[in-house]
């Protein structure tokens, strides 16, 4: 058990804690343990049942509420359990700007030292950050199949057949239908055994269900939306060019895509320091094909876009397609992680063999891949969070009245 990273999904209202303990004593390898808890892999851990986001839009008074302090305590205690299982006492660095992160770091150190009475290894640096460091990555639309299934459809990606799963996982969504047909033909040709055929067809059926859901979304204008979004994210494009492409999208009519897609697009644009212009609001309001209820809905969209500008006040991220987690990992490995932005709470700033990043506020699918190096698990990187966050979950927290 000391040689593997352990996946812990806490749910204090259920008997899962005792089950975890029983399973941990009975399993022979990390693979068995991971299978028991259906983890993404051994280098990604979740320690809560939901992302904790209630600190995001608070006034920067520096004082945490009683509820927030309780959340900090719970997360710190769970992190300690993980590191005790790993037989590690890490250096601790936290995101300076957020009092929430600093509290978790301080509480982690106190709880570790009061509950630990043995020698531990010193191979890990724990870096505690929160969702405000990267608000862009969770809301950028997905263009690959597995990412689309998890983030857009909020469904589990099928992993019953490793060969089929791998063939479909990274396919661009516009080509998934054709690829699925090719895979189906290949399965029929290569599997004459009736039992094998049934198992393969069962796996294909689950993928087919998700592909059908994907196809419906594509027909509603999802591809056009991706095109517009790529223009907004393109740093080489001028403001005039971006205005032009957004106007063109608005003229197509918002019925082609779902409300949440529109909100995400307008939020990304607002985060680009180029908020929705008044004339665009008028363009939306005056569209002849909109009824009064739809016009009211558009007004709400623009209000949300204005609110989204506030996110720039809490986010360190400039408009970039690369998640901030990737930059933190890179800086850590180059021994250039900013000590002003990430001060040391315990230990020292000298890099250790392994980095363990804890993201408060949920991991998006786009960030999970950064526990890997060239497609393989990177043994020097562990990414941990309270839970997985999707665009819908994020916006429900940010704009609860919508």
TrEMBL record:
<dbReference type="InterPro" id="IPR027482">
    <property type="entry name" value="Sec1-like_dom2"/>
</dbReference>
<dbReference type="GO" id="GO:0016192">
    <property type="term" value="P:vesicle-mediated transport"/>
</dbReference>
<protein>
    <submittedName>
        <fullName>Uncharacterized protein</fullName>
    </submittedName>
</protein>
<comment type="similarity">
    <text>Belongs to the STXBP/unc-18/SEC1 family.</text>
</comment>
<dbReference type="InterPro" id="IPR001619">
    <property type="entry name" value="Sec1-like"/>
</dbReference>
<dbReference type="InterPro" id="IPR036045">
    <property type="entry name" value="Sec1-like_sf"/>
</dbReference>
<dbReference type="Pfam" id="PF00995">
    <property type="entry name" value="Sec1"/>
</dbReference>
<dbReference type="InterPro" id="IPR043127">
    <property type="entry name" value="Sec-1-like_dom3a"/>
</dbReference>
